[in-house]
Amino acid sequence: MQQLKMCDLLTALNALDPFGPFNVGRVAIKTKRNQVLQPLADVINDPENLFFLASQVNQAKATYVVAAIKSEVIKSSENQFFAAMESYLRTTKVTTASRAVAVKLNAAIQTIAKNAAALEEALPNPPPADARAKGIEQPQNLLIAAVAAQKAEAAKKVTFIDIWNRVLLGKVVNE
After folding, report:
1. Among positive and negative, which fits the CA dihedral 107, 109, 115, 120?
2. In the chain, where do the E strands start and end?
3. Residue 168: which residues within 8 A CB-CB, separation 6 or more?
4. 156, 36 in Cβ contact below 8 A?
5. What angle do CA 3, 84, 172 make, to 5 degrees?
6. I need a labelling partner for 12 at 20 to 30 A (CA). Which of 37, 44, 121, 142 fits?
7. Buried b / exposed e across 82-95, counting CB within 10 Å, b at 16+?
8. Which residues, at least 6 apart from 41, have a Cβ–Cβ distance to it below 8 Å?
9. How far is it, in rounded angstroms, from Cα 86 to Cα 67?
10. Please, which domain of life does this record's source organism belong to (predicted)?
11. How many CA atoms lie within 13 A of 103 on its CB side?
């Protein structure tokens, strides 16, 4: 989410929540963090996607995924489970299923970004930059900046699917 500039967007939407509810046309725009993130949680927590791992393996998976997303070297000497994680992620079943989840998550992320941009457009113009922001203006300015940053990142055409593919292509180096 950080690489897609969604964290600042979520913070800005959440900051606007006390001033809501907000509607753009006939669409109610959710601003409370847990409501905005619920579609992502629903995808991730779908019964098909849930499986339980021993805590050591789960921790290894988390570390492996973060390193792969950052394109860092994944060293076998750092965790005994990394080689198994690489092998597991490369099985056809896991690759296919996890890419399907990535597609759903990507769609949910795009909806959040689209709704935030629509809300930003619908709000009245904030005061000039040199004026002191008050009331809704401060979170509105946060939203304007966050939407601009997210749009700039989206223009690079990097999707959640691309980021997940880094994980699937992660390579463990024996050291």
Report:
1. negative
2. 22-24, 27-29, 74-75, 172-173
3. 89, 90, 95, 98, 99
4. no
5. 55
6. 44
7. beebbebbeeeeeb
8. none
9. 12
10. Eukaryota
11. 6
Three-class SS of residue 28? strand
Cβ burial of 30 (10 Å; 0-12, 13-18, 19+) is: buried
> How much is the pTM?
0.83
Interval 167-175 mean pLDDT: 92
Tokens of 124: 């009245």
Write out pLDDT tens, residues 66-117: 999 999 999 999 999 999 999 999 999 989 999 999 999 999 999 999 999 9
